[in-house]
Amino acid sequence: MTDQLAQQPNTPWKQLLDNGLDAVQSTYLDRYRQTREGLHYCADVVWGNLQTPAYARAMLTLVADVHGGSHDTIEEAVATRTARGALIGKDGRTSHLLLGEQALRTNIGGTDVMRSQLDYLADVMDRDGITLGVVPARAPMPCPPPTTFTVFDRMLVDIETASTLIQITDPPEIAVHVRTFELLKTVAVYGQAARNLILTERDRHPG
């Protein structure tokens, strides 16, 4: 897999954002068009492809604020980010997502945004191509707790730090992330148990 984002192993977000938030999101959309299988572990926020427009808007606004980026293209970036979700299940694409329980609790955008986002997660679980699990906060960790990462077709790994996008193409390193994902699956909950955790957190945001 090759794309604009994967040209350098470590790229500061400030550099990536020089052309605007919408340019970065467009490049990611192209990558997801190429991807057949995605493995995604998100420790403390909801994965981008399953974000509602309001949640995505709040997240991208925070990104622009931290890195001094322009807010001028946020609406275009929101539309492009949320378009990624429509690719799941098309032409055989699959996405296996593990969320840390903290991802259901981290307050992005306030009560109304969180209620809507958590409702959406509960509704989208049964869509073709999506496998959604939640790693309970008190589950015994089967591996050193990892940071958020994505594995694209087992050929590329993205790790997003506060300042830098790290990209891994070395097969042994990719294998470590795949193994980590497989271990996290052993303590995750799925189906109704995952939906119960999601809706419990939703109910903690008064309507």
Description:
- It contains 7 helices and 7 strands; from the N terminus they run E-H-H-E-H-H-E-H-E-E-E-E-H-H.
- The chain has helices at residues 13-16, 21-34, 53-67, 74-83, 111-124, 171-185, 191-203, and strands at residues 10-12, 37-42, 94-100, 130-135, 149-152, 156-160, 164-168.
- The chain is α/β, with parallel strands linked by helices and 207 residues long.
- The chain starts with 9 loop residues before the first strand and ends with a helix.
- Strand 5 (149-152) and strand 6 (156-160) form a beta hairpin.
| Largest sheet: number of strands, sense, barrel closure | 7 strands, mixed
**What is the number of beta strands?**
7
CATH topology: Endonuclease, Chain A
So how many helices? 7
Which H/E pattern describes the elements? EHHEHHEHEEEEHH
Unreliable segments of 5+ consecutive residues: none
Structural class: alpha/beta
Radius of gyration: 16 Å
Instruction: Please give the CATH architecture.
Output: 2-Layer Sandwich
Shape: globular
Amino-to-carboxy terminus distance: 44 Å
Helix content: 40-55%
Which oligomerization state do the chains in this entry correspond to? single chain
Widest sheet: strand ordering: 1-7-6-5-2-3-4
CATH class: Alpha Beta
Portion in strands: 15-25%
Provide the number of structural domains.
1
Residue-averaged pLDDT: 92
